[in-house]
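Table S5 (text form). Sequence records supplied for joint modeling of the two-component complex.
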Amino acid sequence: MATIVILVVLAALVLWGVSVYNRIIQLENRYENAWSQIDVQLKRRADLVPNLVETVKGYATHERQLFEEIARSREAMINAKGVSESAEAANMMSAALGRLFALAEAYPELKANQNFMMLQEELAGIENKIAYARQFYNDAVLQYNNAIETVPGSFFAGPMGKTQAVFLEIPEQDRAVPSVSFGGAQGQPQA
Amino acid sequence: MTSAPSGLPDVFTDPASGQRINLLDYKARNMRLSWAMALLTAAILAALAYLLAQVTDIASTGFFVGSAVAIGGAQGLVGFFLSDKIALAAAGARKATAEDHRYLVNVTEAVAIGAGVPAPQVYVIDSPAPNAFATGRDPQRSSIAVTKGLLQLLDRQELEGVVAHEMAHIRNYDVRFMSMLVATVGAILVLRDLVMRWLYWGGVGSGSGRRRRSDRGGDGARGQGVMALLLIVLLVLAPLLATLLRLAVSRRREYLADAAAAYITRNPEGLARALEKIRDYRGPQLEVSEGVRHMFFVNPLAGQNAVDLMATHPPIQERIDRLRRM
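The corresponding structure-token record, covering 517 residues in total, follows.
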């Protein structure tokens, strides 16, 4: 009789342990996946940039310095290795694109160009998604850190070799609410 | 790269109870309450079955309860598998593609990323009344429908708030939960109808019930009478109670979806402004049948948003106030 009770208790403990272990693994996978989501959006943005630059060049021919900076940031994005290089390149591109759209305000013909308007909306959409992806990444990191720092998980974290994940710092220009401010694209429904 | 996430604080004061609530726990608490109410509804069904067994015999009880559960279950299954198609067809929703509704599709995809769910299918309803709903039994098979009126009325932040609210319903499995609850309430109603009919035509104490207890004598008959009385009282009250519980759950889930939307967008003001604009809308209303009314973002019948136990949605002003207090 006693052995049965002991076995049942042991089985329950093992199951509980497995569930804690699994949860930590799931949360870790979740935040790593969240990072790759950010990456996907950053790549999509980088892909749209050449088209955008060509469109703008047709109207603002003398802004060579800006175009070169954009090209450089795109190079940096493609060649970036690792998280911090990626983040730096992304921030550089965000800054450059921000200035490009600010510049476009001075060219009414450019603003009326169909292609430009479509690109502007697409990029505004992607910037929005990047902001959300970063936010979700931070949420996922928070959950993961909570799991490995609070009591049941903390016993397992050491043996599993899990350490705290790092939050992403949101660059200033993306932080302002509304989520993204990119010239005239705000609140323009396309029916 | 080590600063903590900023924006909406994780801890806020729940305006209803005055407690400090951790937003990450708010969901858990509301889920527990929803489940408690759902179990209470199921318990009512079980109590009815028990009383019935006392008053009649097992075979009759089996027949009544079995039929009720079968019909309720069928309702539940149909709801489970087909409710999204039915709802979308009933609302006259058309699928929105990236070409003709790029703005809406972009907003939906962005909020889906923030909510951590796969992006739902997007549909557009051809109506000037601003409204929206979400269907789908799990996040992988879900849809959101939005009226043209809503697209024209709201700006980007406000639309994000509404979309996030619908996304929260999907993420919380609200559609599945509410279908289950509707099926349980349906079973209680069917049981009530069947037993009432049986009582009308045959009555307690006739047939096999009396035969089984006749050897117990006087006490047995009185016990059976008490049970019968209890049964009738419960039959009258139970459907009402179950419906009230269902509506309370529905309202609680609306508040939860609002809070989740505020969290996802980090912007309760966006959703609050959207609700204000919708509250002040004075144009043509949306025509929907009773069965699907509860699924919409705001109650399609304007003026039915007053504080009311029978309302499927909490009053708009209360929702705005709660959001502003976050």
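Note: The mean pLDDT of chain B is 76.
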